[in-house]
Amino acid sequence: MFGVEVDFGQNAASGARAKWTSDRVVNAHMAVFGDTGMGKTHTLRKIVSAMQETGHPRLRFHVFDAHGDVSIPGESAVAFHESADFGFNPLELNADPEFGGVRKRIQSLIGAIKRTSVRLGPRQERALTKLLTGLYKREGFIADNPGTWQAGGDRRYPTLPDAIEFGKERLKAYHVGANQRAIRALEEVNRCARAMRAKKATLQNVDDDGAARLERELEAARVRAIDAYKDAVCAIETGEEFDEALDLEGQKETLESVVDRLENLYQIGIYRSTPPPLDPRSRVWRYIIKSLSKDEKKLFTLTRLETIFTRAVQRGEQSEVLDCIVIDEAHLYQDKEEDYIVNRMAREARKFGVSMLFASQSPTDFADVLLASLGTKVILGLDPNFWPQAVRKLGLTESQLKSIVPQRRILLQMKGIGQLGSAASLVIL
Predict the structure, then answer these.
(1) What is residue 32's predicted lDDT score, i.e. its pLDDT?
(2) Which residue stretches of the chain have pLDDT < 50?
(3) C-alpha distance from residue 311 to each of 60, 63, 276, 305, 353 (Å)
């Protein structure tokens, strides 16, 4: 049994050590509050170091570093940016019939997008859902058949470029009135024609055999396209074959906007088919996201948290802390909605072996639903302008806040198991 432990210093009143132990507090979630220069980064390093020393050997830290300055000894750090050729595939499925599947993966991605400032409208959300469902189906991953959700062999999960290509094929099908197999065949005709024109332009003397071969390739592509269009027409028996085309009727602009959104997502540089080079032997994985915009940081963090939480729930209840989420500049990820992934994890992730560690300048940045879910608060020193709200949100007094001496004395609130509230202790560092 590994009870994760952090020694914060000496209790100023009793002289005893002010130790935080994960199996004695109501949950292992913690927030560190401090104005600029109060030592938030140093405190984060101290907490992570102590948790590594006393925690389970399989305890993994996920550090979401908004400014790129929360380095941890022994870490594996990766910077995410627009020109990176690696990232996380947002369309990779969890194949577990209970916790994964096509619908949950699509809704998770849409949910993260909707939390940013540029949100999806109802029609865009519906169009994106249908688009991604159709893409999964084309690749053999059927929403209603859990037996098809596992990749392997020649089967791979689709990626954002696949979704973009699929969306453009649907738009072309809308314009020319054909199915997508026929569209791909038509594109092959165009490709062969362009290739033949390019070769003729670059070679001054194309021999007869070479010209004949190019003509045969083009003719073969034409035959395949004609056959594909013929098959599309001959397959019509009940009229249901046109459901997809009818669904696009009047939706052209909506689908175009969805494809544009997918292209913008891909350009961010966080969603790639090649996984990031994080060392599996390292217990600390640091995601450096300083180059991303506010919306992009939020999108990256929320989608990654969704994956970590789903995997934690899937492994079942745990008596040990096996994952620690460290979120710097936590005010960037606040939302008061109950089903918001950050709030859900603060409420539910404890029993699945997940600890959450937040850092921010003030508790005023936090939604009340999140603050109420934190077992421990560490106050390093707040700007006096935040004192009135901190008194209300944390149940402190102004005299307690005045007793803090930056980098020498802090306030520590720990709610023990079975306690309704938590008194603040002055701790000497």
Answers:
(1) 97
(2) 237-242, 246
(3) 13, 17, 18, 10, 11
pLDDT at res. 187: 67
Spatial distance between the Cα atoms of 43 and 58, rounded to a whole number of angstroms: 22
- Say if CB 310 and CB 111 are below 8 A apart: no
Task: Determine the 3-state secondary structure of 20 from DSSP.
Answer: strand
Looking at the chain, the domain(s) classified CATH 3.40.50.300 span 5-69+278-428
pLDDT for the residue numbered 111: 87
Q: Could you please report the per-residue DSSP string of 31-63?
A: EEEE-TTS-HHHHHHHHHHHHHHHS-TT-EEEE
Predicted confidence at residue 238, as pLDDT, reads 46
User: What is the CATH topology of the domain spanning 5-69+278-428?
Assistant: Rossmann fold (3.40.50)
Q: Which 3 state secondary structure label does DSSP give 293?
A: coil
3-state class (DSSP) for residue 364: helix
pLDDT of 178: 53
Please provide the distance, in angstroms rounded to a whole number, between the alpha carbons at the two ends of the chain: 28
| Rounded (10°) CA dihedral 215, 218, 224, 225 | -140
Buried b (16+ CB within 10 A) or exposed e, 317-329: eeebbbbbbbbbb
Residue type, 294: K
DSSP bridge pairs for 129: none
What's the pLDDT score for residue 217? Answer: 79
pLDDT tens for 175-203 read 555 555 655 665 665 776 677 677 666 65
